[in-house]
Predict the 3D structure of the following.
Amino acid sequence: MSHLHPVPSGPSARHLVVVSAGLSEQSSSTLLAGMLTEAAVAAHDGALEARTTHVELRPLAHALTDALLTGFASGELAEALAAVAGADAVIAVTPVHSASYSALFKAFFDVLDAGALEGTPVLVAATAGTARHSLVLDHALRPLFGYLRALVVPTGVFAASEDWAGGSGETALRQRVTRAAEQLVALVTARPREERLDAFDRDVAAMGSFEDLLRRS
Amino acid sequence: MEFGIFSVGDVTTDPTTGRTPTEHERIRAQVAIAKKAEEVGLDVVAVGQHHNPPFVASSPTTTMAYIGAQTERIKLSTSTTLITTTDPVRIAEDYATLQHLLDGRMDLMLGRGNTGPVYPWFGKDIRDGIPLAVENYALLHRLWREEEVDWEGRFRTPLQGFTSTPRPLDGRPPFVWHGSIRSPEIAEQAAYYGDGFFHNHIFWPASHTKRMVDFYRQRFEHHGHGRAEDAVVGLGGQVYIAETREQAFREFRPYFDVAPVYGHGPSLEEFSSATPLTVGTVDDVVERTLGFREYAGDYQRQLFLVDHAGLPLPTVLRQLDHLGEVVRRLRTELGQVAA
């Protein structure tokens, strides 16, 4: 699997899943996703003992269309969806297309099981050619993850073309990346580690006994 | 173990000719297909219930009674009877009548229906799908077992001193299957009553079917109806059969590629490997079908979908000839397994 690179670590490690909807080989979305991941792992002097999975959506584009049409995902897409559903934290990065997240990005979260991100800390980030799109974080990404009942990190990270200038120093972009990553890690480490149920087991748990079902009807 | 066919009764344009059958032709085709199914030695034929185009199957018991009058041996069933939007009192009456007319040669499969607008047309709400299935079946179950029913619920007008007539044949209610693709509540319902559970087994990967069936089996035992392995399981399946695998793929592909449910998505090859769809020879279908037992265990009913997606009647009838051969082979194989 080209797009999943699990880093082995101890059983107590948290699982950080990074979803990037960049379209080119070295897209700015993937670049930003990499910076955010490094910052999260380094935040608070490495407080987050994490294994990291990167999910690039471009290789899953055909599978995503199939899943939209058939109602089920298979193969690498199913594995990617399961990784996100089982994540202790998610970093989600999309390029801006026509003033919103890209269709590829939205398709991934459309086929994710309802409830899969409930209570999961999510750091949202976006890239675009111009800073005029920066409110996409608040007008598109936050409502989406709010609907999915995720815990969205207060600082979102937006990078326009000009943000990639400025060398290796403490640029404004790097400061935002660090702040957002520290907030994400604070949310994750403040929460007890818990086993995540998948959609089927969540439905079974919510159902209770048949007598409960009869009473509810 | 029973083998048969199930359909939804769709009116679909044949993509290879552009011809759309009339409703009349489709309804008559259902009868011809059922008679052919009996002729080739199948055990069950199941008809659908839908209340919206492009489906013609809105009145399953009418169709079942007509088929039953023209056949001798084959069992009539449904795929599915809508327990959500059909008044359970009418289900009790219609299917008990059918049971008498067919001398018990029938059963039924309950389903919820997934077409949003149909619910409000019958005064219901699709968001109540599970509660409707639970409450309506609780009433249907009593109507067939108690002479006089006093009843009050959320979804229909109360009953006082109500007797559903005719009473079930010889005092034994028709056998009920509960069908669901993904709702564990329905598997739990089937287990609670000790009824059958049917998984459509067409649209989703087999790993999902296995989880639903395992859950039903375990709950069947929990509710005291017997051992998990003795729970009553039915599976669907979808096949297209020809003399050679190449011919089967060539003939079925134009129908698959634009089929209403999964068309324009995955390739026929991808869908055949991700789901139980089997396109190939009699041997291929026998082998794949025997494989279902590896994850579903011993099960009691296997229904195949062969009549859909615009396939013309002569093609469907030819499929049934092949399917008759498949079933003869399966019976032999399973007999050998049992011996």
